[in-house]
Design brief:
Length: 334
Amino acid sequence: MSKASGALIVVAGGAGFIGSHLCAALLERGDEVICIDSLLTSRRSNLAALRGRRGFSFVEADIIDGLPVAITARTNEITRIYNLACAASPPQYQADPEHTMLTNVLGTRNLLRLAEESGARFLLTSTSEVYGDPDVHPQPESYRGWVNCTGPRACYDEGKRAAEALTFDFGRMNRAQVRVARLFNTYGPNMHPDDGRVVSNLLCQALSGNDITIYGEGEQTRSFCYVSDTVAGLIALMESEIGGMEPVNLGNPDEMTVNQLLGLVMELTGTSAAVVHRPLPVDDPRRRRPDISRAAQLLGWSPRVPLEEGLAATCQWFAEEIGATRNPAVVAAE
Ligand code: UDP
């Protein structure tokens, strides 16, 4: 494959929802991208638009197992390493908790060692889950969180906490230049229709006319960030020359209840599907909203895409993806 003019960048988890958008944005800048992905929870179809693009290559491998020759053979050329590799929706990361934990610990160590050998800058995508079920609201990076380390979410929450600790240790010991982003709920095209998250579930259920599942009373809150905003924040953080030894929240502070999200989805799809309530999952955080002052100050970053706009684009994408017919009146009005 011909080489692009820019940097050589490794994106672990590049076939995933956010990773595929990140790869596209980096290619757009003229960078060369090697995507490594196990395809365990991501999808080959997310790569369809990337394959054949100048500067893009894909290697199917699990970062737990060490890094493949396609990457190590080019160690001296690599300038940036993004780590987005991990199952990220609660049902998926809980399906194989041992693998989730080791992806974060062993996988992150393998990529950090590559950063050490290559001199490349390393960015870890961590998560708002490090705050657990927060008793400080909104959540600034200084908040140390309230995580249940023995519960069903611990494989992910504690795995990401361990990955953060390891990343900052490499940074502190001058073994690698590091950056850590804490991503809050992100949505957009390329989400897996079956990943079990609230945005994908509600949209797909509404579009296909299946029962819409609300867990608990639906009064828990989340703050949803459109994927293009998240990707812009990740690149800005990676390229920032300052602030490496502090985590940075990336999310949209526009907080709403799950019931309010449901209202938007019903309006957007014109669905007549029934709403059913299911038990609230164990340790489900009651509320979540990022304090993004640090990202604003450090990177000049803030989200730009309003939820109504992002949700409409995501709805359109899911409608095509699952072959559902949307309410013709709603489509005509767009
Ligand atoms: N949720 C829901 N119905 C669903 C899926 C999720 O009510 O079909 C709720 C879930 O209990 C949580 C919120 O929506 O309170 C966000 O869940 P998600 O799995 O998207 O992400 P989380 O922020 O919990 O990691």
